[in-house]
């Protein structure tokens, strides 16, 4: 499929996990890709090889998106690489598992600055570019089921994804007249390195699977497929909402 012919996509935090799957899927569907991570390593180099083998262009930009000046420069540099930018996937995200009463300011900032502040100013930079070039754009924010459902011991993470829920609602309304669409994708339990401890601990995993009607974790590719749909013109009338990819986790209820 070539639904992203002549489209350029930036995917933040795309060295591994969901971000890497999104980059590969958008490339498979025809987009040229700007990859991002804190630094280029063999995972990024391997992705560049995979994408170029598909006949698409790929370039890696190192930047820590939790700092405003870095994320602003990342989006500007991404535009400069191939001369334009059509799709912004704000995927980079972090979490901290800690009792609420022990969370430090540094830990709070680490989560909020990556998951919310960096996205806020990355989008702002992209929107200024779209406005000054009189062009539309597509923004997809990688949220979580935890923009909606609680996650004890992950208070900062929930606050960041809850904030992302409202940021998306607000921007979809404010930017619609500029032909800029904004949506959230909310994964449930997906098999990526962020869930290593969960996947390595059978009793934790069993507990999570009990809450998932489909009784399995999702794959990064399952999330990427939804991202590709939302980024495409098939979703041209879709903005301002959240789309769950969670095996039924969020709205799950069963009588014992
Ligand atoms: N895996 C899941 O079950 C799950 C569930 C819900 C939401 N999510 C969300 O999906 C997104 C991706 O998660 P994942 O599971 O692939 O995680 P992951 O930890 O496997 O990958 C995240 C990537 O983002 C990068 N990254 C983190 N902070 C960064 C920063 N400041 N600057 C640049 N890059 C940075 C990491 O280096 C890593 O490559 C996150 O936003 C996460 O909150 C994941």
Structural account:
The protein is of the alpha/beta class. It has a single domain, classed as NAD(P)-binding Rossmann-like Domain (Rossmann fold). It has 8 helices and 7 strands, in the order E-H-E-H-E-H-E-H-E-H-E-H-H-H-E. It is globular, with a radius of gyration of 18 Å. Bound molecules: nicotinamide-adenine-dinucleotide (NAD). Nicotinamide-adenine-dinucleotide binds next to helix 1 and strand 2.
Decide which structural class fits the backbone: alpha/beta
Summed up, the domain count is: 1
Q: How much beta, percentage-wise?
A: 5-15%
What's the CATH topology label?
A: Rossmann fold
Q: In which range does the helix fraction lie?
A: 40-55%
Looking at how many chains there are and whether they match, the oligomeric state comes to single chain
Largest sheet: 7 strands, parallel
What is the H/E string?
A: EHEHEHEHEHEHHHE
Any idea what the shape is? globular
What is the first-to-last residue Cα distance? 44 Å
Q: Which CATH architecture is right?
A: 3-Layer(aba) Sandwich
Enumerate the distinct ligands: nicotinamide-adenine-dinucleotide
Count of DSSP H/I helices: 8
CATH class type: Alpha Beta
Poorly predicted ranges (pLDDT <50, ≥5 residues)? none
List keywords for this structure.
single chain, 256 residues, alpha/beta, Rossmann fold, seven-stranded parallel sheet, 8 helices, 14% strand, binds nicotinamide-adenine-dinucleotide
SSE topology sketch:
Layout: E1 8-11, H1 17-28, E2 32-37, H2 42-53, E3 58-62, H3 68-82, E4 87-90, H4 105-132, E5 137-142, H5 155-175, E6 180-187, H6 196-200, H7 202-210, H8 220-231, E7 242-245
Parallel strand pairs: 1-2, 1-4, 2-3, 4-5, 5-6, 6-7
Nicotinamide-adenine-dinucleotide binds at residues 12-13, 15-19, 36-38, 64-66, 91-94, 114, 142, 144, 187, 189-190, 192-195.
